[in-house]
Amino acid sequence: MSRTLSALVAGLILIGVIAAQDYRPEPVSISKNVLKAYDRFHDRTTVMLKSFPVTATIGKEHYLLSMTAGFMFDSKMPSKKPESILLYFTEAVWSTMAAAESLEDARPVIAGEHLYLSGQAEVIVLFDGERIKLPHGDEPMDFNGGIEAGQSSIIAVPLAEYRRMAQSQKLEILIGDMVVAPYMKKTSQRLIEMAAFAESIRIGK
To answer: Is 70 helix (H, G, I), strand (E, B) or coil?
Structure first.
């Protein structure tokens, strides 16, 4: 084999390795806010909300986070309904201007670069006066066909509690010493869409 041909083959192999390392399934819309992506290499499907901005507070500081929700199952068709929905928070890549239309209050916020989201912090949720403690999720998800920058926190919410949270008028989530309070007039519709899809799953025989 000539040097030129050998170099070409090596180059193609290298390109293939790089492409494989960067591989992720392309999501498709199944409703206004819900996306689904099937990973044929791992034979796994991820169902997720399009991410949206929310504000979080630590003391007097206001931070901008990216929030989404979803669940995963093996193969193209689920063998059972999900037991829980994962809420996913990550440091925002949003600009304050781009996020303004989705936020209740356009007060100044700090981008998430200096915000540490711990996967071990205590999680307490308040919705319409009811208080529940929730565990962290242990499965990172590749939401929206791309990798969000920065630290992340994943919360596992049982499906029944998730539906009630989605329908609540007021929702506050304490993660360590950080409080996330989504604007429910704009967030509820998204969360309910995810609950409706999860509950509509029909298991074939």
So the answer is: strand
